[in-house]
Write a structure and sequence with these properties.
Chain lengths: ~200, ~260
């Protein structure tokens, strides 16, 4: 039943001239008041991004599903703690998802399989097309790819290994055969350049 | 070692990407509490990192939706605002200490409980402990060393950020210039290695003593001399006999 239902369009960024039914912030505020239908809408809006990110980091579908479930429950439990002054609702949710995915990677059971994850970048980038009807996601996808392409090779590789690969900067340094200090700096100036190119504000 | 302490601001990128190992993440979060410049930058970089997720969207398995919605139906939400309560002690740790450590350390574990609870009855309760302990003659000296530190009005407890299941707690009194370090679950060391404690003064590590955990990884040690004025504490693994300067990796650390 879930899969057969049409997925609602996401709110398009302000200025795009489209009807934006309910902002994610508003949904989250309803969820914070225990509104379960609002949570279902939020699920439909965010679960693809959450699951996709977690699976990109973890690779293993069963583990990814487990972690995505944890993240979604965490969104439900912690919605009361969301503070719009400190960032967007989407960023809040995705930050939580990434942290959880990375924590799982670093936990011991995942450490066993670490070596299997090397080369994640090209090992199937997720079935993005399946959710490409989500306008904002597609728009952002293109913008983010373009912004990543605007980085130096070392910046891009370091940022991608850290974010999509879930590696620590020490591991990134190993993988790229680059000094620790250089990797730290590239992660920072790479992100700063992405921030400026994407016009991200907190 | 120097890298960790001298370049703390440059960790913002790695932090925003969740690319710091757990101990450095905790260390940087402590830094964020006091560094407004980093905090502003980190908020923006965290938001930037979150946008990177836009390239990875993928339909979750269909059963996830109903399962999560069913779970939501039976899951209570957190009350709003206020900070999320952080357990100051790992559950079970103190109970284990009480069983496995010698009596003085058991008293220490109890005293730690006292310290972390309401301070109103602190002196009264520590006095009670003191009487109990000193009644047992062999422990009197150790009790004399420990209890004044624990009972000091300005005693402060710092939980060091340690890897894995290792727990290290440092209680010190600036007024007395003395401190106590308690550990649990420390990894066993090779026979030619030891744990060494460092207290940082103006960013420089000063040797504060060595300790050898028992078979269960537990230990306690009284620190003095260099306690006063230290801003951070760390534990490294060093060759047996200790080193004048840290040479091994940091296994635990905290600002104090």
């Amino acid at each position: 039943m879930a899969a057969a239902q049409p997925r609602p369009l996401r709110a398009v960024p302000a200025g795009a001239g489209s009807v934006a039914p309910v902002s994610t912030e508003t949904l989250l505020a309803r969820v914070a008041r225990g509104d379960q239908p609002a949570f279902a809408t939020l699920f439909d809006r965010m679960s693809g991004q959450i699951y996709g990110l977690v699976r990109r980091v973890l690779r293993d579908p069963a583990q990814s599903e487990e972690v995505a479930q944890e993240v979604l429950l965490e969104v439900w439990r912690n919605a009361t703690r969301f503070d719009a002054a400190r960032g967007s609702a989407t960023a809040w949710v995705m930050t939580m998802a990434h942290r959880r995915a990375v924590d799982r990677v670093r936990s011991e059971q995942a450490a066993r399989n670490r070596d299997d994850r090397v080369g994640v970048r090209n090992a199937g980038g997720g079935s993005f097309d399946a959710v490409a009807e989500e306008v904002e996601v597609r728009l952002e996808h293109q913008q983010v790819r373009a912004a990543l392409d605007g980085l130096t090779d070392l910046q891009r590789e370091a940022v991608e290994l850290a974010y999509y690969g879930g590696y620590t900067y020490r591991e990134v340094a190993e993988l790229l055969d680059t000094p620790l200090g250089t990797v730290k700096t590239r992660l920072r100036d790479g992100l700063i350049r992405l921030r400026d190119n994407l016009g991200v504000t907190a | 070692m120097n890298g960790v302490y001298t370049d703390v601001h440059t960790l913002s990128g790695a932090y925003a990407l969740d690319a710091l190992p757990a101990d450095e993440r905790a260390f940087f979060e402590r830094h964020l509490e006091v560094c407004t410049a980093c905090r502003g930058e980190v908020d923006e970089l965290v938001a930037t990192a979150a946008v990177l997720a836009a390239t990875t969207a993928e339909h979750p398995p269909a059963p996830l939706r109903n399962r999560v919605i069913d779970l939501v139906d039976v899951t209570r939400q957190l009350p709003p605002a206020q900070s999320v309560p952080q357990p100051r002690t790992k559950p079970g740790m103190l109970a284990q200490l009480r069983l496995a450590l010698p009596p003085v350390a058991a008293a220490l574990a109890l005293a730690v409980v006292v310290l972390t609870s309401m301070t109103a009855n602190l002196n009264q309760r520590v006095e009670g402990l003191e009487q109990e302990l000193t009644a047992n003659s062999g422990e009197a000296q150790a009790a004399n060393d420990l209890l004044p530190i624990l009972a000091a009005a300005d005693a402060r407890t710092s939980d060091l950020r340690a890897q894995g299941d290792q727990t290290v707690r440092y209680i010190h009194s600036a007024r007395l210039g003395r401190g106590v370090l308690v550990s649990d679950g420390m990894a066993p060391l090779a026979p030619n290695k030891t744990y060494e404690v460092w207290l940082f003064h103006d960013g420089q590590p000063v040797p504060a003593g060595l300790f050898e955990p028992n078979d269960a990884g537990r230990s306690m040690a009284v620190l003095d001399e260099v306690v006063a004025g230290a801003e951070a504490i760390a534990v490294t693994i060093e060759p047996v006999g200790g080193s004048p300067e840290p040479t091994g990796r940091i296994v635990a650390r905290a600002d104090v």
